[in-house]
C-alpha cells in the first residue's frame, strides 16, 4: 500500500460512523471490549465534563465503551475527586504496577493503562479538551471495530472556517510542520501521510500496545508511529478527522521542550534501527534564554526521555493476562 | 374518584424524584452537547438540527424542522385523543462569537445561556428517554417543540407559527425554562418592547454652541421617560435593558440606541405609556435636530388562566409535595402564545441558577431531579384530566 492509497483507504471522518447502534452491534458480534483512558494532571476544570459526556453517551445510551478510567499523575487539585464523583474509575499511576517504580510523564500513564485496563481496544483521550463530544471516542474506535487489519487509529482535526471547494493547505501544529513532518519525509516518507501525528487522541488494539516500548515523555506518539509502521506496516495505521479540538495553546518555549524530547526519541530510534550512523552521545540539556536588564541568562532544562519496555515483557502483566500458560 | 387518582400521582412523587435523580447525568450530558452549540435568535439552525436528531434517536415520530426553524416531533400516546405541547425555546441571548464552553463542576454548571434556555431545551430533548426511565406512559400525545426565534426581535415567532399552522389541536401547554425551580407563570403581562434610535445627520454643524451628539440626546429621552407617572394599580414599569452608542472617547457620538421594555397588568396602560414615549421622541427630535426613531417590535396582551385554575392548583400542589415553595408570578414568556389562542398553559423552571444573561450564567445540579419529577407529575396530572377546568 503506497501513501496515496493509504490516504484514500485509511483516512476517515467521524461522521462515517454516525450509526452507533450498528457500531455497538458490530462490537458485540466481534466480542470486543473497549476501554477509555483519560490521563490527567491537574485537570479539575475539564475532567467532569469529559466523564459525564462519555459515560452518558457511550456507556449508558450506546454501550460502546465498557470501561472509563482516569489515570492520574498525582494531581494537586480536585481532579481525582471530581472524576470519581462523575463516575470514572480513578487510579493513581503510582499505585499501578508499583514494582516498576514511578516515573513522571504522560507516557507513563498510557503505559500503565495497558496493565490496569481490561479492554481489547484502548482509546486514549486527553483531558484538556474544551469541546468534548462523543465522536472523539467512537470516531477512533470504529475503524478498529469494522476493519480487523487496522491496529492503530490516530485523530486529526480539520474544520474549514468557511465552506470552500478549492484547494487549501491543511496540517498539524507548529512542532508537526517544523519538525515531525520534515523528519518523517526524510526517514519514513510513508508516515508523512499522517495529518496530525502528534495528536494525543488515538485508539489501539491491546495486542499491539503491549508490544510497544513507551517513552514516558514527549516522544511517545512519534515512537508509536515508527514502531507500528516498522512492525505491522502502513496498512495497520489509520487516521480519523474529528472536526475540531479546542484546547489550551502552548507557548513557543514549551513547544521547544516538546521538540527537544521528540528529537531525542526519534534519533535514538533511528540509531537503533541503523538508519543513521555515527551519532555522538546525545545531550539531554535544552538551553533557552531570558534577559534581565542588560544581562542575558541561560536557562537549562535537563530533559531525558526515559522509556518503558513493552508491557508484554513485564512479568506481572504476563501473570495478570495469563500469558505464561 | 378523580381526587383519589391525583393523590396517587402525588404518592408517586418520591419514586419519580428518585428515578429523576438517576437521569441527571444524562441531562447534564445533553446540557453540554446542546449548550455548547451557539444559538442566537435567528441563528438557531445547528442547535435545532442537533435537537431534531435527538428526537429521532429517542424514538419520537413525525419529526421535522419547519420553515421557521422549529424542531418538532411527537411521542404518540396510548389513546392519542388529546395532545399536550411541551415547548422550550432553542435560542439564547448569547451572541454566536462568545465562547460557549460549558464548565461542569460538582453541584453546578456554568456557561453562556445554560439557564436561559439550554437547560430547558436539554430537558425537552432528553425527556422521552427520561419518561421511559421513570415508567411514565401517557394516553395523550406529547408534542415536543424546540422553538426558534423566541427572544428579543424573534417575538415568539417560532411558537406562534407552530400554533397557527399545526393541524393537531393542542389541549394544554407547558413551557420549560431552565430556571427558576418553583416559579410558575400562568399569566402574561401586557408588554411592549422596542428600540429608540438617535441619529445625528451627516450635515450637522458640530461647531455650533451646545452641540451635543446622540448619547446626550438619548439621555434626554431617558430623563423624559423617567418623568412618566407610573401607577401602582395596574402595576406598570419601564425597564431600560441596554444602551449602545458612540465609538470612542473624544468623538461626539452620531448614533445611539436604547432598548427598553414596558410592562403592565393592563393593556390600556401599555398603550397610554407607549403613546407618551412616542410623543417624547418626537418632541426631543424637533428640539435637537437629531433624528429619533421609535421601533416597537414586540407586544403582548395581558391574560392567562386564573390562579385557581386546576392546572395552576395541581402544579402548586406538586411543588409543595416536592418541598419546593411555589411562587406564581406573571411573565412575558412563551405562555402568551398559548394565551392568545385560548390554550391553558403554564411555564415552569427546572433548577435554580444565577448570573442570568452573563457569560458566567449558572445552574445548580442538585435541584434538577425535583424539576424533572415536577414535570413528569404534571404531565401525568394533565393526562389524567386533573387539570381540566371541568373534569
Task: From the structure above, extract its key features.
heterodimer, A: about 325 residues, alpha/beta, Spore Coat Polysaccharide Biosynthesis Protein SpsA, Chain A, eight-stranded mixed β-sheet, two-stranded antiparallel sheet, 11 helices, 12 strands, about 40% helix, globular, B: about 400 residues, alpha+beta, Aminopeptidase, Alpha-Beta Plaits, 2 domains, four-stranded antiparallel β-sheet, about 25% strand
Largest interface (CB < 8 Å): A-B, 21 and 15 residues
Radius of gyration of chain B: 23 Å
Enumerate how many helices of chain A there are, as a single number: 11
Q: Helical stretch count of chain B?
A: 9
Residue share in β-strands of chain A: 15-25%
CATH architecture of the largest domain in chain B: 3-Layer(aba) Sandwich
Q: pLDDT below 50 for ≥5 consecutive residues: which ranges of chain A?
A: 160-164
Number of strands of chain B: 18
Q: Could you give the order of strands across the largest sheet of chain B?
A: 1-2-6-3-7-16-8-15
Care to describe what's here?
The complex is a heterodimer of chains A (325) and B (391). Chain A has 325 residues and is of the alpha/beta class. Chain A has a domain at 3-161 and 188-249: Spore Coat Polysaccharide Biosynthesis Protein SpsA, Chain A (Alpha-Beta Complex). Chain A is built from eleven helices and twelve strands. Chain A has helices at 3-9, 20-29, 44-61, 79-85, 106-116, 135-146, 174-187, 206-209, 220-232, 252-273, 315-321, and strands at 11-13, 34-40, 67-72, 89-92, 121-124, 152-156, 202-205, 214-215, 237-241, 285-292, 295-302, 307-308. An eight-stranded mixed sheet of chain A has the order 1-9-6-7-5-2-3-4, with helices on both faces. In chain A, helix 4 links the parallel strand 3 and strand 4 (89-92). Chain B is an alpha+beta fold and 391 residues long. Chain B has two domains: 2-188 and 302-383, Zn peptidases (Aminopeptidase), CATH 3.40.630; 190-300, Alpha-Beta Plaits, CATH 3.30.70.360. Chain B has helices at residues 2-35, 45-57, 114-133, 157-165, 214-226, 267-288, 310-321, 335-339, 368-383, and strands at residues 61-65, 71-75, 83-89, 103-105, 108-110, 141-147, 172-179, 183-185, 187-188, 190-199, 236-245, 255-264, 291-300, 303-304, 327-328, 345-351, 353-354, 362-364. In chain B, the strands form four sheets. Chain B has an eight-stranded mixed sheet, sandwiched between helices. In chain B, strands 4-5-18-17 form a four-stranded antiparallel sheet, covered by helices on one side. Chain B has a four-stranded antiparallel sheet with strand order 11-12-10-13, covered by helices on one side. In chain B, strand 17 and strand 18 form a beta hairpin. In chain B, helix 5 (214-226) packs antiparallel against helix 6. The longest helix of chain B is centred in the N-terminal third of the chain and has 34 residues, at 2-35. Chain B is globular and about 75 Å long. Chain B starts with a helix and ends in an 8-residue tail after the last helix. The model of chain B has no long low-confidence stretch (mean pLDDT 92).
Amino acid at each position: 500500500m503506497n501513501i496515496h492509497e493509504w490516504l484514500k483507504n485509511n483516512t476517515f471522518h467521524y461522521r462515517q460512523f454516525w450509526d452507533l447502534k450498528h457500531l455497538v452491534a458490530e462490537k458485540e458480534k466481534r466480542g470486543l471490549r473497549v476501554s477509555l483512558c483519560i490521563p490527567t494532571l491537574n485537570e479539575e476544570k475539564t475532567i467532569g465534563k469529559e466523564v459525564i459526556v462519555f459515560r452518558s453517551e457511550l456507556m449508558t445510551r450506546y454501550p460502546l465503551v465498557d470501561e472509563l478510567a482516569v489515570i492520574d499523575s498525582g494531581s494537586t487539585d480536585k481532579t481525582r475527586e471530581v472524576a470519581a464523583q462523575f463516575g470514572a474509575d480513578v487510579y493513581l499511576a503510582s499505585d499501578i504496577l508499583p514494582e516498576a517504580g514511578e516515573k513522571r510523564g504522560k507516557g507513563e500513564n498510557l503505559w500503565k493503562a495497558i496493565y490496569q485496563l481490561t479492554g481489547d481496544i484502548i482509546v486514549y483521550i486527553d483531558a484538556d479538551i474544551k469541546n468534548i463530544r462523543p465522536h472523539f471516542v467512537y470516531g477512533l474506535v470504529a475503524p478498529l471495530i469494522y476493519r480487523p487489519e487496522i491496529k492503530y487509529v490516530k485523530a486529526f482535526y480539520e474544520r474549514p472556517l468557511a465552506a470552500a471547494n478549492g484547494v487549501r493547505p491543511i496540517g498539524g501544529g507548529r512542532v508537526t510542520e517544523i519538525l515531525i513532518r520534515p523528519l518523517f519525509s526524510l526517514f519514513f516518507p510513508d508516515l508523512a501521510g499522517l495529518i496530525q501525528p502528534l495528536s494525543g487522541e488515538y485508539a489501539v488494539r491491546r495486542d499491539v500496545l503491549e508490544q510497544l516500548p513507551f517513552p514516558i515523555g514527549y516522544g511517545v506518539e512519534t515512537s508509536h508511529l515508527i514502531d507500528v509502521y516498522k512492525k505491522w506496516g502502513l496498512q495497520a495505521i489509520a487516521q480519523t478527522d474529528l472536526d475540531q479540538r479546542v484546547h489550551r495553546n502552548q507557548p513557543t518555549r514549551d513547544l521547544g521542550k516538546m521538540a527537544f524530547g521528540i528529537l531525542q526519541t526519534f534519533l535514538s530510534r533511528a540509531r537503533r534501527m541503523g538508519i543513521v550512523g555515527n551519532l555522538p552521545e546525545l545531550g539531554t540539556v535544552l538551553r533557552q534564554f531570558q534577559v534581565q536588564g542588560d544581562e542575558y541568562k541561560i536557562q537549562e532544562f535537563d530533559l531525558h526521555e526515559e522509556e518503558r519496555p513493552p508491557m508484554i515483557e513485564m512479568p506481572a502483566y504476563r501473570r495478570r493476562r495469563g500469558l505464561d500458560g | 374518584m378523580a381526587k383519589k387518582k391525583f393523590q396517587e400521582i402525588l404518592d408517586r412523587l418520591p419514586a419519580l424524584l428518585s428515578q429523576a435523580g438517576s437521569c441527571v447525568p444524562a441531562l447534564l450530558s445533553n446540557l453540554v452537547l446542546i449548550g455548547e452549540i451557539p444559538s442566537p435568535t435567528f441563528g438557531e439552525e445547528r442547535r435545532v438540527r442537533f435537537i431534531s436528531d435527538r428526537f429521532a434517536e429517542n424514538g419520537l415520530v413525525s419529526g421535522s424542522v419547519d420553515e421557521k426553524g422549529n424542531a418538532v416531533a411527537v411521542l404518540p400516546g396510548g389513546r392519542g385523543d388529546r395532545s399536550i405541547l411541551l415547548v422550550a425555546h432553542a435560542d439564547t441571548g448569547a451572541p454566536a462569537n462568545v465562547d460557549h464552553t460549558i464548565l461542569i463542576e460538582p453541584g453546578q454548571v456554568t456557561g453562556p445561556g445554560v439557564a436561559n434556555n439550554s437547560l430547558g431545551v436539554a430537558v425537552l430533548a432528553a425527556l422521552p428517554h427520561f419518561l421511559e426511565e421513570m415508567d411514565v406512559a401517557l394516553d395523550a400525545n406529547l408534542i415536543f417543540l424546540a422553538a426558534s426565534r423566541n427572544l428579543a426581535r424573534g417575538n415568539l415567532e417560532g411558537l406562534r407559527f407552530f400554533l397557527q399552522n399545526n393541524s393537531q389541536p393542542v389541549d394544554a401547554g407547558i413551557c420549560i425554562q431552565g430556571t427558576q425551580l418553583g416559579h410558575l407563570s400562568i399569566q402574561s403581562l401586557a408588554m411592549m418592547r422596542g428600540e429608540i434610535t438617535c441619529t445625528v445627520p451627516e450635515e450637522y454643524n458640530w461647531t455650533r454652541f451646545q452641540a451635543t451628539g446622540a448619547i446626550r440626546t438619548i439621555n434626554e429621552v431617558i430623563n423624559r421617560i423617567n418623568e412618566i407617572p407610573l401607577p401602582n394599580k395596574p402595576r406598570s414599569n419601564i425597564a431600560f435593558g441596554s444602551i449602545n452608542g458612540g465609538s470612542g472617547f473624544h468623538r461626539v457620538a452620531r448614533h445611539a440606541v436604547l432598548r427598553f421594555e414596558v410592562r403592565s397588568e393592563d393593556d390600556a396602560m401599555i398603550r397610554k405609556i407607549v403613546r407618551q414615549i412616542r410623543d417624547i421622541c418626537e418632541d426631543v427630535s424637533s428640539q435637537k435636530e437629531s433624528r429619533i426613531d421609535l421601533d416597537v417590535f414586540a407586544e403582548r396582551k395581558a391574560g392567562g388562566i386564573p390562579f385557581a385554575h386546576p392546572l395552576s392548583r395541581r402544579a402548586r400542589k406538586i411543588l409543595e409535595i416536592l418541598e419546593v415553595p411555589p411562587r406564581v408570578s406573571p411573565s412575558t414568556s412563551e405562555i402568551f402564545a398559548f394565551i392568545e389562542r385560548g390554550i391553558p398553559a403554564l411555564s415552569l423552571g427546572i433548577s435554580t441558577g444565577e448570573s442570568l444573561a452573563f457569560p458566567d450564567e449558572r445552574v445548580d445540579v442538585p435541584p434538577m431531579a425535583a424539576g424533572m419529577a415536577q414535570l413528569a407529575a404534571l404531565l401525568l396530572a394533565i393526562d389524567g384530566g386533573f387539570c381540566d377546568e371541568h373534569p
